[in-house]
Amino acid sequence: MSMKGIARAFKGNMGVMILTSGIWTLAGQLVWPFQSIYILQLGGTYFHIGLVTSIGALSGLIPILYGGYLADTVGRRKIVNTMSFFLSFNALIYAFAQDWRWLVAGSVLNSIASGLRQPSFSSIIDDSTEEEHRAQSYAIWSTVPPLFGMLSPYLMGVYMEVHGVKEMLRLGYMALFLASFIASTLRHLYLKETLPETRSPRFNLLLISREMVTSIRETVLALSKPLWVLGGMGLFFGLGAAIGGPFWITYATEDVIGLRLSEWGIITTANVVVGTIIGIPLAKIADSRSRLLLLFPSIMLTPLAIIAFIHSTGFSQTLLVSMIITVLGSMGMSSGQALFTDQTKPENRGRINSLWSVAGTMQAFRVGVSPGSLLGASGNLIGGYIYQNVSKPLPLYIQSGLVAMTALTAILFLRKSLHAGA
Fold first, then answer.
1. Rounded to an integer, what distance in angstroms lies between the CA atom of residue 168 and that of residue 157?
2. Mean pLDDT confidence for 72-90
3. What is the pTM (predicted TM-score) of this model?
């Protein structure tokens, strides 16, 4: 992407979303990497870590379906703005939580609002990309906002060691409320609608439900073969993320490797730096040559990298392995997201994005992101039970195996399906 292309990516809706997500991330990174620790601090167990996440995931299933319908009828902007404000105020539940059960309520409300918002949110981003620069646009989208919160995990780790984990995380959630409220206000003021034709909202829930079910059925039947293959790959990857993802921090700090929280913060910050440096150049390769050129080695090597993380023994080794995983994730993220968008018609993006969310399909093949959905909820519960009662490394081994299944599906079916659909 030329300098003009990069400058164009920062204009309009994409620029608004990058800025506001960056502000949101600045405060969010104070607390998001440590949520599993917060549950333990509030009296929960490892099983409760999976339980909180899974209940939240289940709560978002129906809202995501309605969100997809609303994104393609009412429009994207209105949904994004309204639910952004809701999510902002929801951070206060986490800030004032008295025990882990409060986080269940916060997770449920968060998932409902996120479910209604996610299809519109994703569609605004998709609508703001150009096909010839799509992977690079996603790389900018995925690397610039995290820069705002680059130092946040490290600073929070240091302050938690000095002033106490629970106390500092409460302050972190208050900061998240303030930052997200500012971001929501900016979206309300500057976002533009991207759906060409919108309809006035109707509050007949039964009628909306019927139209939603009909549109989902039509959308599923219209999915191309490449999208079916990509969806299967995303399901394997998403299930692995749900089973293993919530426990990386506890595995690295409290239970096995023995890192300090500040050291985990340094690793998180280093991953942001590495992802930022390599994200756009890798995406440029995906745009100029082939989406598959980087995707295949990424998902083939990631299982081995996860196993290397499991066997890490100290800070330096964990840092090195984590950065390798970040490089592999950067290779697979923009390529995967661009492939999904390439195969999706603009007028169906809201509904198709909602289908992927409900199914738990990961569109960005990057370790470190956990899905919602029924699949995600099941995976969280399974992972929590195994981690607490069977084996600490086993959920991560299962995640590695499921990423390997993702790679196998791609090798057997993806290239053939793309050529057939060309």
1. 9
2. 92
3. 0.75
